[in-house]
Amino acid sequence: MHLRAYETIEKFKMFSQTKSIIVGVSGGADSIALLHFLKKVCKKNSENKDKIKLIAAHINHQLRKEESDRDEEFVRQICKKWEIELFVKRENVGDLAKKNGIGLEECGRNVRYAYFNELCKGKSFKIATAHTLSDNIETILLNLTRGCGLNGLCGIPPVRGNIIRPFIEVSRNEIEEYCKENSLYFMNDSTNFKCDYTRNKIRLKVIPLLKEINGNFDNIFRRFLISINEDAEYLNDICEKTFNNIKAPDGFLSEEIKNLSNPVKKRVILKILKFFGIKSPEYKDIKIFEELLHGKINGFSINKNNKIEIKNGKVNVNEISEKKKGYKLWKYKAKKINILTEAKKTFIINVIKIKEIPKGKQQDFFKLMLTSKDIFKNSINMDIINEENLTFRNRRPGDVFSPLARGISKKVKKLFNEIKLPLDSRDNLPILAIEDGKNVKDLVWVYGIGTSEKYKIKYDTKIIGVISERQDF
Predict the structure, then answer these.
(1) Higher pLDDT, 169 or 413
(2) What is the structure's pLDDT at 120?
(3) Strand pairing of 306-311 and 20-24?
(4) To the nearest whole number, what is the mean pLDDT of the chain?
(5) CA 394 to CA 12: how far, in whole Å?
(6) How far is CA 467 from CA 334, 387, 400, in A?
(7) Residues 189-207: pLDDT tens digits?
(8) d(Cα 264, Cα 417) in Å, to the nearest integer?
(9) Residue 156 and residue 97: Cα distance in Å, rounded?
(10) Crossing angle (nearest 10°) for helices 133-145 and 217-246
C-alpha cells in the first residue's frame, strides 16, 4: 500500500505548492490509515527540509446519536496521542437535509467540504480525503445505474482544486492490511453494513459477486480507470478547443455546433448550458438543445426570466419579454370524444369499473395499473370526480397543479420551466380540469406531467378513468 499511495502522490503532484494539509478524519479505517500514513510522509518531508504541517478535521453529523459521539471522542484521543492539531464541527445533518430538501449523503458531503474550505481560509492548504479505489468502484457502478456517460465512468478524480486523494488507487483490503500491520484501531460505522442505501447494496451485494467472477477485479478496475480517463481527457481537450472556436461576442455559432461529431457535440452543448447558468445539465437538456439547433423548436426557457434561442445564426440567452402576445383560450367537455384541434391531439377517457372485473383478476389488474409508470400517471380516481364537470382545456394564468409523489403544489408555468418544455408548445398543451360553471375547482391531469396527487388511483379505487390519446385522427 505504501508504494502505491506514494506513487499516486507523485504522479498527481498532490503536495506541490502547499505547506499545510487538512485531513478529513471520520474515525473509520480509511481515514485513520490516511492520517497515520500522511503523518509519516510529513515527518519524512520535514527531515528533508520540506516541512508540511498536518491538521485533522472531524465532522460529527449527529446521525447515529451515541455512536457519532463515540467516533468524535475516538478521533480526539487519536489526534492527542499523535500530537496532531484537530478541529471539530457538530452539525445535525438530518435536520439540515430536511430543511434544504436534499438527501442525507448529499447534505453530509456539502457540510464536510464547506467546513474544510472554511478551515483553509483562503490559504494554500490542501484538503486530503480518504477516498479509495473501492469507493471509486462503488461510485462508478452507482453512476452506471443512473445512466451516466463517459465522464461518469471516470469516477472520483484524484485531484480536484485543492482536494487531494492519496488513497484513490488503494483498495479497501489493502488499507485493512495496513491497519493490521501498524496495529491501528478504528471505529466501524454501523450504517455501512445495512442495505438501506443504494451504495451499500453495491458494496455488500454487487461487488462481492463481481469478485467471484474475477478474483483480480480490483486490479482490472485500476487498468479500466486509467484507460477511460485517458479517453475522457482527450475528448475534453477537443471540447475545450472547440468551445473557444465557436464562441462569438454575441453567442455561439449554431451551424458550427450542429455539424460537430456527436461525442464532441454533446460535451460542447453541456459546456454551453453551464456557461448559460444551468448548474447540472441533464440528458434531456442536451436533447432539447439539439431540437433547437435543428429548428424543431424556437427556444426554451432556463428560468422565469430567460430563454435560449437562435438569432442571426447565434445561440444565446435572451430575456423573456414581459409583453407576451395573448393566446386563444379553448376548452371541450371531456364526456365527448375530444378532437382538440388547437393542440392537434385527440383524447378519450376510458372508464373502468372494478366490480366488472372478475374477483380473481382484480389484484393482478391493480398491480398492472400501479406499477406501470405510463398507465399510472395517466389514470385518475373517478370515485371523487363528477364526470359532468371534467373539461379538457389549455392553461390559464395562475393555474396551480400538484404533481404525483412530490408533496407540493406549483404554478403550471413553473412546472413547465422545470421540465424545460419548449415555449412554443405551452399555450396549447391539454389540461384536464374540474370546472363548475365558470369556476375552476381543480386541475386533475396535465399532458406530459401526469395525474394530480389528489386524483391518483389507489388499491381501494372503485372507478378508474384512463386518459389516452387517440392515434386515428
Answers:
(1) 169
(2) 86
(3) unpaired
(4) 87
(5) 57
(6) 10, 13, 20
(7) 877 777 767 888 999 999 9
(8) 27
(9) 23
(10) 60
Kindly tell me the burial class for residue 406, based on how many C-beta atoms sit within 10 Å of its own C-beta (0-12, 13-18, 19 or more). exposed
Contacts of 214 (CB under 8 A, 6+ apart): 220
Grid cell listed for 329: 383560450
CA contacts within 13 A on the Cβ side of 370: 13
Of residues 137 and 397, the one with the higher pLDDT is 137
31 vs 171: CA distance, rounded Å: 13
Question: Are 351 and 428 within 8 A, CB to CB?
Answer: no
What is the residue-wise DSSP string for 112-156? HHHHHHHHHTTSSEEEE----HHHHHHHHHHHHHTT--HHHHT-S
Q: What is the DSSP secondary structure assignment for residue 322, as one 8-state letter?
A: S
Cell of 312: 442571426
Alpha-carbon distances of 179 from 172, 183, 371, 400, rounded to whole Å? 11, 6, 47, 58
183: left (phi over 0), alpha (psi -120 to 50) or beta: left
Helix (H, G, I), strand (E, B) or coil at 245: helix
% of the chain beyond a pLDDT of 90: 44
Rg (CA), the chain: 28
- Residues 6+ positions from 465 with CB-CB distance below 8 Å: 349, 350, 351, 352, 379, 380, 381, 382, 385, 387
Instruction: Yes or no: say if 328 and 342 are a contact pair by the CB < 8 Å rule.
Output: yes
CA distance 457 to 450: 12
State how far the Cα of 278 lies from the Cα of 28, in Å rounded to an integer. 36
Nearest partner of 23 among 189, 185, 165, judged by Cα:
165
The pLDDT value recorded for residue 473 is 38
* CA–CA separation, 342 and 392 (whole Å): 12
The predicted pLDDT at position 472 comes to 46
DSSP strand E in 286-430: where? 299-301, 306-311, 314-319, 331-333, 338-340, 345-353, 379-381, 390-393, 400-401, 410-411
| Nearest residue to 455 (alpha-carbon basis) of 366, 388, 382 | 382
Contact 255, 313 (CB under 8 A): yes
The pTM is what? 0.65
Separation of alpha carbons 329 and 125, rounded Å: 61
Report the distance separating Cα 471 and Cα 473, nearest Å: 6
Helix (H, G, I), strand (E, B) or coil at 286: helix
